[in-house]
Amino acid sequence: MKAHLHIGTPNQQHFVESFRERNGSDATFEMRTSSSYEIEKRVFDLVVGTGILVLLIPIFPIIVLMIKLDSAGPVFYKQHRVGKGGRLFKFFKFRSMYKEADAVRERIKDLNEQDGPVFKIKADPRITAVGGFLRRSSLDEIPQIFNVIKGDMSIVGPRPPLPSEVEGYQAWHRRRLEVKPGITCLWQISGRSHISFNEWMRLDMEYLKNRSFKTDFLIFLKTLPAVIARKGAY
Predict the structure, then answer these.
(1) Could you give the CA distance from residue 4 to residue 26 in angstroms, rounded to a whole number?
(2) DSSP of 35-73, one letter per residue?
(3) What is this structure's pTM?
(4) Would you call 153 helix, strand, or coil by DSSP?
(5) What is the pLDDT of residues 194-211, one digit of tens each?
(6) Which residues contact 84 (CB under 8 A, 6 or more apart)?
(7) Angular region, 112: left φ>0, alpha ψ -120 to 50, beta rest
(8) Helix pair 129-137, 60-70: axis angle to 10 deg
(9) Alpha-carbon distances of 95 from 18, 36, 75, 126, 139, rounded to whole Å
(10) 7, CA 20 to 30 Å: which among 19, 145, 190, 204?
């Protein structure tokens, strides 16, 4: 029997559970898509992405100052991630770790608290004081709006994985690479790091099977309450 996680508000929990009722690892399903949906999705990305950018640009100088005063290193963290069709793209975040974090990861890999090929630690020693705040509030994700406007990402879609993570995928996990990655998704609104890796992948499969403008819009609306709740954000 599959255990259900209790997440978010009752309405939010019902929304995610409605996807989980059909969860499975079948990689043979037909992905839901249409030319009209793809056009609507791109327009939504540009309109919402531009709107969010205009709204949040005034706080950029504050975040930049906080990062620079807290630790040495660049303001932005750039990293190659895997996008649609397995194509690599340059992914942007506000830096939340010490500048030597990537080198340190190899030394602390045994502390990993997530299953599967993903590396996550709740009390990650690589995260700076300001970085912890940025992560809990999801403010570190703001620069990904530039990825959305450029077209590498979408507002809603599976989170973009690292190449090393994709190397550890099973065949059915790779289906999530058939669409543009997103800033928010079912995993993002349903507990993030509190969810097992396979459950995360199953949520992405359900999103692929049920993609629509309505689904994207509902996930987008439920993102702010999830960010405020901060569940699984670290």
Answers:
(1) 19
(2) HHHHHHHHHHHHHHHHHHHHHHGGGHHHHHHHHHHHSSS
(3) 0.83
(4) coil
(5) 788 999 999 999 999 999
(6) 177, 178, 179, 180, 181
(7) beta
(8) 150
(9) 35, 37, 6, 11, 10
(10) 145
